[in-house]
Amino acid sequence: MAVISRGFVGRGGEVNPDLPAGQYLTADFPVLSSGPTPHIDTVDWQFSIRTDSDTLHTWNWEELHALPVEDINTDIHCVTRWSKLGTSWRGVSLDTLFATVKTTDEYVMARSYGGYTTNVPLADLLGGQAWIALEFDGAKLDPEHGGPARLLIPHLYFWKSAKWIHGLEMQSQDEPGFWEQNGYNMYGDPWLEQRYW
Amino acid sequence: MTGTSEAGDGRIGNWKVGVVTSIRRESASGRSITIDVPRWGGNIAGQHTDVRLTAANGYTAVRSYSVASAGAGDRIELAVDRLPTGEVSPYLVDTLREGDELELRGPLGGWFVWTPQQTESVQLIGGGSGIVPLMAMIRSHEASGSTAPFRLLYSVRTPLDAFFRAELESPSANLEVTWIFTRGAPSGWSRPAGRITAADLEAHGFPAALSPTVFVCGPTGFVETVASALVALGHEPNRVKTERFGGA
């Protein structure tokens, strides 16, 4: 039972079916980070997937670019309530990276340069749903937006799309990452408004 | 899996209906709003709250705002700056009146927070309305009688743009306040007007060697500049907590 806010009309307009509940459209690209922006030289950059058998699959910058790079056109939704529709990215599909990885674990902890972590079920990284993104809007990814490479999992709230991605660690159980320990939801489906604990 | 819906979010609860008890102008574009929120239950310094507005036709808009107050109790203070193209902030600054009801949900957030149990030195660096969560920390620091050394660097366009000006002009014994004016400084002010630099941080901030906890809050460009300069000055990145608003 909502309270009517005296004198509030809002921007009005029709309801946009592409906008999840509680979100608003933005034209710019807000930056939200919990600390200083790490600056990583692509010469030193490395991405790895660590599996249950403690095997490390590693790619450097050249090796990653030798893989098929896909165009991605997608909507993104931040838990702080902004959404951007029809954003364009380029990146390497996680399906490609996991093609040679053998694991029985169902959960993943994403780890970033700078120490950020976020947890995702493996199923949400596969099936054309997630990428290591290298470009946004036709240009290489700015450090503020997670460059040189970030995770892109657009069907979940955007804090799951870890900036400055460094690696994925397979785990048998779902453990909370950084924001998940600090008040945010373990899964983060924008269409179910899974924002907080 | 958690999979909580709004109704299932036990820890922060459902929307609560607060009543605006007082409003104070802070600057030409900002004001602070005191609200009685039954069942709020207190908050830690630095936490925020969702605010929901509902139009007569059922349209709703929700935004998050930092809470300027801290501690136990059901009375909270918000301080809001009007964003010219905003949807919620112009309403809160220009339309909302004492006695109006306002829906809130919180407190939220467990990262950009300070508790009186912390004894280390604390460096606060705020730009514009980024002062709001830092103000909650300053008030919590003072109210708890904490002896942790606090320093604040507060960057505003001109003295007239400062939030909480009177309160910050007479700080408590364990708080040192340095003002940075970016557009217009008072006459006789030794530092020329201009954006914050590494030299300001070095001259007025706690040195990195002291390992202070640093809280930086403000517009994205401000936070990027300050956080990068802090790391260059030797501060451990994991001791520098940031909160940003706006695009890059």
Automatic annotation (TrEMBL), chain A:
It comes from the Bacteria. Residues 35-179 form the Oxidoreductase molybdopterin-binding domain. This is Sulfite oxidase-like oxidoreductase. It comes from Cryobacterium serini. The lineage of its organism: Bacteria, Bacillati, Actinomycetota, Actinomycetes, Micrococcales.
